[in-house]
Structure formats: structure tokens, C-alpha cells
Design goal:
Elements (H helix, E strand, L loop, with lengths): L8 E5 L5 H11 L6 H9 L3 E8 L4 E10 L2 E9 L8 H15 L4 E7 L3 H9 L3 E10 L4 E9 L3
Parallel strand pairs: 4-5
Antiparallel strand pairs: 1-2, 2-3, 3-4, 5-7, 6-7
Amino acid sequence: MADPGRQVLRIRPLIEADLGQVTEIEEACFATPWSERTFRNLLRRRDAVLLSAVYEEERIAGYAAVWFVGREAELGDLAVAPNDRRRGIGGELVDAVLSEARTRGVVRIFLEVREGNRSAQGLYRSRGFEIVGRRRGYYAGPKEDALVMRRLLVR
């Protein structure tokens, strides 16, 4: 296998064939992971967009799920495989989500992130998100508050 640092990474729509790899990454990244069924159901929704970060041999390095309601959006899930972190993949996924949101005329995009997940918070801050609220005890295993972050796309 080639060194992932030398391979071409592209962001494309997530497809059903990606779901095995996506759920493996989901289970590696989250204490309460989404099921394959959850991803499959999101793929069928017109108001949702799922993106994959894919290396040239079709190995999934990360993914994002976002859905749209009127002029708002929620980034519901974003993960990068543990062995692919610190290569800018998360940033590329967030940038792709923001681009899709702009295309759809979204003015605000929200997300929740664990209070203790400093690296994710740093990623989101680097893309213009700010903390606007807290959901006490939102996460289980371990129990932890969620920080609500928002990015304004139109000022």
C-alpha cells in the first residue's frame, strides 16, 4: 500500500458501498456510534448530504453528515480514521460542508462537540465556528456536556 501522505485524497458524496468502512471509523471514534442503518437512512433523505474523504484506492479516511432545515444546517457527524488524523482531512470535510451550505443559501450552521474534545473544537474554530451554548449531560459513556458551536455564513 502506498504512503497515504503521497496519495490523492478527494471529497465526494458518500455512497452505500462506503458504509462498511464508515461504520468502522464511526465505531473507532465515538463512544456511542451511529449504526450503519442510521447512515443508510440519512443517504435516503433529500435534506441530508453525506461526504466521504477517499484515497485513490477507495479507502475511506473520513466522512461528514450534514442536514438542512430552511436556511440553517446541522453538522451532525464528522470523523477521521485514527491513522489518518493530523493530515488536514477534517478541515477539508468541514470546508466541503460549508461550501454545500453556501450553495443551499444557508445562513447558520450548528454542531455539538464534546466539551473535552479540544482537537475537534480547534478544527471548528479554525473554520469560523464559535461556542454559543452548552447542553448539560448530552453525551453518555462517559457522561459529558456538549458545546453548541455555530458558524454564520452571511453577516
